[in-house]
């Protein structure tokens, strides 16, 4: 990989990581309702991507379901979880997306699991279990459940996306944005309160954050990342994207004062090590793990 492209990938991963910490600040410190915040993000994405909306990918039901899973479902669940979960813990729990993707690809795409991938899955699960372990036993809080559900939704959407042909990244983002803003706006109206009061209280920093997460993260970083996918093999890119959870942990400890002890360190090492084993496998199917990499 050329040095310029490597630095671009590092920048993309740092943008994704900073967005995780920023989202924690928005839904926790600023008390902005999480589904409402996700709706604002995708409203900007849908507006910017509007010129690429048509023609609609076929079959229509599949692209709509993918939009719900990878857009509204994934991000709304993550933001709900971040209300009560630290970015560091969330970054480790999100690594469940790799075993989720593999297991769903076995069920839906007929893929087989080699022993090496099985070891990687086992290490990832062991790392996650260590993160949620407490002296009194395993404790999976409500926030961590939501983060795990976000990982599952993103993985399910990624597997479904493998069955959609000839859809450009911009058209895909256009439909994810449109489907997400409609569904999330409805959900926020039904289940949340005080959205606009919270937005007015947060003021211009919230507006700046929404523009950052929509334009820089969703449009800019994703476009740069897809350009790298077009130039390099997935087996090279997938391991390097592990910079994202590592940077999230570092930024979480630095900015949001996340607790990070030896147990968390060991859990992170096991989970990320398991993902690395899966990502470094020689077969090209690792592209599926690259496709689900989104923030």
- Shape estimate: globular
Radius of gyration: 18 Å
CA-to-CA gap between the ends? Answer: 23 Å
Most strands sheet: 2 strands, antiparallel
Helical region count?
A: 14
Uncertain residue ranges: none
Quickly give the structural class: mainly alpha
Strand content: under 5%
Strand order across the biggest sheet?
1-2
Considering DSSP H and I runs of 4 or more, what fraction of the residues is helical? over 70%
Topology order in helix (H) and strand (E) letters = HHHHHHEEHHHHHHHH
Number of strands: 2
Query: How confident is the prediction overall: mean pLDDT?
Result: 84
Description of the structure:
- The chain starts with a helix and ends with a helix.
- The model has no long low-confidence stretch (mean pLDDT 84).
- Strands 1-2 form a two-stranded antiparallel sheet.
- With 295 residues, the chain is mainly alpha-helical.
- Helix 1 (3-29) runs antiparallel to helix 10, helix 2 runs antiparallel to helix 8 (169-191) and helix 5 crosses helix 7.
- Helix content is 76%, strand content 1%.
- The radius of gyration is 18 Å and the shape is globular.
Which helices and strands occur, and which strands form pairs?
Blueprint: H1 3-29, H2 34-48, H3 60-82, H4 87-93, H5 97-109, H6 115-132, E1 133-134, E2 137-138, H7 142-161, H8 169-191, H9 195-202, H10 204-231, H11 234-240, H12 243-255, H13 262-279, H14 287-291
Antiparallel strand pairs: 1-2
